[in-house]
Amino acid sequence: MLAPGDPAPDFSLARLDGTHWRIEEETAEGPLLLTFIETDCPTCRLTVPYLKRLAEALGPSGHRVVAVSQDGDPETRELVEAYEVNFPVLLDVDLHASRSYDPPSVPALFLVGQGGKIEFSEVGFHKGDLNSAAEKMLSGLGLPVRIVADPDDGAPSMKPGCTSRHLESVGASEAVDSAAAAEPVESAWAVGSADALPEPIDLRPERAPRASRFTLAEDEDPYEHCMSAGFSPFLPVVPPTAERVDAFLAAIPHSPDRVVGLVPPCYGSATVEKIAANAVMAGCKPEHMEALIPVVRAACDERFNLHGVQATTHAATPLIMLSGPSAARLGFASGAGVFGNVARANSSVGRALQLVMANLGGALPGEIDMSALGNPGRFSYCVAENHEESPWEPLHVELGFGQDESTVTLFAAGGLTEVSEHTARTGAGVLRTIAATLSMVWSWRQCGRVDAVVVLCPEHAETLSSDGFGKSDARDFLFEHTGVPLRAFDHEGTEGTQLRDSYEEVLMHGEPHYRKFKDPSQIRIIVAGGTAGKFSAVLGGWLAGAEGSQMVTYPVKW
Amino acid sequence: MSTLVNPLDEPSRDRQSPAPRLDSLEGKTLALLDISKPRGKEFLDRVEQILKERYGVAEIVRESKPTYTKPAPGALLQRLAFVDGVIEALAD
Prior knowledge:
The structure holds 2 protein chains of 2 kinds.
Chain A: E1 12-15, E2 20-22, H1 23-27, E3 32-37, H2 42-58, E4 65-69, H3 73-82, E5 89-91, H4 96-101, E6 105-106, E7 108-112, E8 118-123, E9 125-126, H5 127-140, E10 158-159, E11 162-163, H6 170-177, H7 184-192, E12 213-215, H8 222-228, H9 242-250, E13 259-263, E14 268-271, H10 272-282, H11 289-300, H12 306-311, E15 317-323, H13 325-329, H14 344-359, E16 382-384, H15 395-398, E17 407-420, H16 427-438, E18 452-456, H17 458-466, H18 471-481, E19 483-485, E20 505-508, E21 511-515, E22 523-527, E23 535-541, E24 552-555
Parallel strand pairs in A: 3-4, 4-5, 15-16, 18-22
Antiparallel strand pairs in A: 1-2, 1-5, 3-7, 6-11, 7-8, 9-10, 13-14, 15-17, 17-23, 17-24, 18-23, 19-21, 20-21
Helix pairs in contact in A: 2-5, 9-10, 10-11, 10-14, 11-14, 16-17, 16-18
Chain B: E1 3-5, E2 29-34, H1 40-55, E3 59-64, H2 74-79, E4 85-89
Parallel strand pairs in B: 2-3, 2-4
């Protein structure tokens, strides 16, 4: 792959409109951002809207953002139309330009300076790289510098791409080179059904239409209207009157039509205004939006996989965990009764997320939300860490944020199982009892693809700390001591039994066990709750890892 | 008299009608989309056999989702665009 300092090889390619485009002519006049893409690469599709944003910021120089498609005309045209691409797209049908720039994967970005030298090259999706490329382009052209990739827009900060077509196997690239003419599947798609396709969804819209407003008849009860209109069919809400919503919007430093995220599984646009309307209904105060907006970002983050969490028959639902000084400032409770009706902030922000998920994400119980049992957390599931009573670093510091920063973390949690341990006098004693409950997470014989949050009450945390346990020591101890004895696998056909070959067998407490967790990172510890009562809790997750739901953290900031 | 702000999603896209249903399976090309739950293959092998033997299905295309927890990738759906019908199959 060509590197900074290399001369950018000259090439000439056809644009979609048939005209020819030559790099030498373009770089004579100014810098270029050249991006090689494949039309079916999800990472390339993730990148395109950011390139659009840069082209828009460049104004009359927007044509200096250029994409080189490694696919044929029909596929490229489909992408250009679907994303309303506003910059030139070239067709590298025989892949000769791709070969001369030789990226291992796409998207591949090359910033070519005026005069034709490569100033920067990178593969994959990286928000930081997009922003630095934008900065160089904009400042080079004397334009105001602008962030094109907002770190908190819900998209991951980085995502690897796909193998560049010129490095794919010969057979595959020949099929591409011949514009898929010999491939019945491709040609049927390209020729037969292009007209019948529904309009593709813009995956990264920045703005969405304002919410509609309507006036109730004089004799209509607004509370009953909210229930019958499906705003919250299962529990009364505060009516989202124009006055209340406008008071929220006045307190938020964002435009009402700004899209914070698209809420799976139906991908409704969570604009600032729609979130505010749902927050009003949940009983939030305007200042709670500072926490709720990042909560919605986290819920829409693809790593969290809200689509799966909402559609599964399991009982998981997002547990919100606040960490850092903003939690107390905004009125979130972290002490006695933390999982119950303890503070307006906890109850209303947790409920607001649930309303956003139902009203904008479209998952209603018995329809798309197919949970067999549901979960009381689906009313509200929101706690803050008890920093004052914790002997250890808080969750947000453990995750790499500064002590003075604050975060919201979402974990797809099932129900809460309390663990009483009032007589153990040692840290190991407390942890052994918790490990026994952890071994039951998901299902007794299911190991490996499971994760859990352990909520330590202050008294247990104190016992552990006095006994020399740091937070990571406690987690490692739980990892090492949580297992399922082989003798439990005495009934063929029971869940988890069929996966025994994938489990790790270890000697635990003098007896052969399978390890419950694959890695200590599948156990997360927070300290919360009141100072009296030696009750901690285990909250099992949904499916762990990239194919299930991953814990996601966003900073609390506007 | 209250003016309320609509808290529900208000999609700007037109509603799509479902694809027309098949009158018969005879001579058709069907896809079986395995959502990748355990033992899906065994289940779908049997479904494929029944569709061919009893219903005269001409051809069966088999595809699998990478994971049952997420929507099928666009490229996979595109590969299935040419068939007459798709059966998306659970297992467990």
